[in-house]
What does this fold into?
Amino acid sequence: MRNFLKPGIFLILVLAFVIRLGYFFAGSGQSITDRAPWEYQKLAVHLLKDGVYSYDGKTPSAFRLPLYPFFLDAIYRTTGDASYKATAQIFLVQILINCLSVFFLYQIALSFFSSSTAFWASLLFALNPTQIGLIFTVGPETLQTLQCVLIAWAALWTLKGPTSIGRWSILGLAIGLSLLAKSTFLVLPIFLVLFFHFILKIRVPYKGMLVLFLCSYLPLLPWIIRNERQLGRVVVFEDGMGWHALYQGTNGVRGVPDLDLPEPLKTYFFTKDPRIGPVSKEMAIEQINGHPWRYAKFCIERFNYIWFHGDWAEHALRLKDSFYDYVSHGAWFAAIGRAFAKILELVFMAAALWGIYAGWIFPEAEILFAIVFYMNIHLLTQGEPRYTAPVIPCLCILASLGFKDIFSRIKKTS
It folds into this structure.
């Protein structure tokens, strides 16, 4: 709390809150009247009104993990408004959660790096258009970002005491909590153990590994039990959607082109039929075996897409058309704005990459790199930039390290 009162972080928090609130009153936080209800909203509304975790209030579903729908349910119960069109209260809570991520990021950078790194990293995060834009969607990204910040803190804390069983358990619980929102960090515990052993040259105690795995996966047990009782099947994560994402990745898909899906997947997708999993798995394996180099090409192409297309122009300036479209229509101010936002986005990512290089001598920076590197698991599926949004706080610290190293080199040269 003493750090909370420091002028640097206090001003950044005020700036972050004002910017996000400005977006809210500029229209991002208004009730949605021109689109269908968000998928997570359906689950939360029926959970509240019918007491059933389902899309129709009758048929139990396991197509989405429960943490974010339960989060929405808590908001609805508190405000008393469970209308599909009432999204303002959701966005306001997500603004506060995102500001909390800014604060925790500052604490992490201050504790494990330096005060200047903490200031610039939290400022970069406060101004990041991708994070600001995703606040105003009814999806788990804002919640996942906070979870990723907690995972990063727990991993860095464990680095300082790798023989402590308690620290490994805290790291496991942070990962386990995230697995209740999305299955992204499914194999992160194994990845981190290998990273500690082979890259950091730190031997993880067997008890530490056991506690890490138990604390990471035991939080899923109530969800698994619920699925077995209500569905008659053991469903650990999303019911078939993981295999479906892999299938779409074998076709070079970006996002979810629902209308282009072949039958029977199209019917299964819209009706939330659990048969989508086995069929998608079979078709994915067939595609990979039949065209392995094409699938590899799709994965490589997605690297550029998920890391260097954060839609800064769309989120910050509401410029949704391409640079060439604006030029062809003579909209030069829009074209310049689009180009400027893209250049800033590329500079940020370039600084983060340089920060990985410059900070590699510090184990703390290596841990952040490990978490960012792990997110490349989305290259295998139909990855989108929002899938990697939770690691933006880690990228902000790395970018801060990168900028500091570049400026110090320029200063020495001059």
Notes: The chain has a mean pLDDT of 92. The first helix runs from residue 7 to 28. The radius of gyration is 22 Å. DSSP finds 20 helices and no strands in the chain.
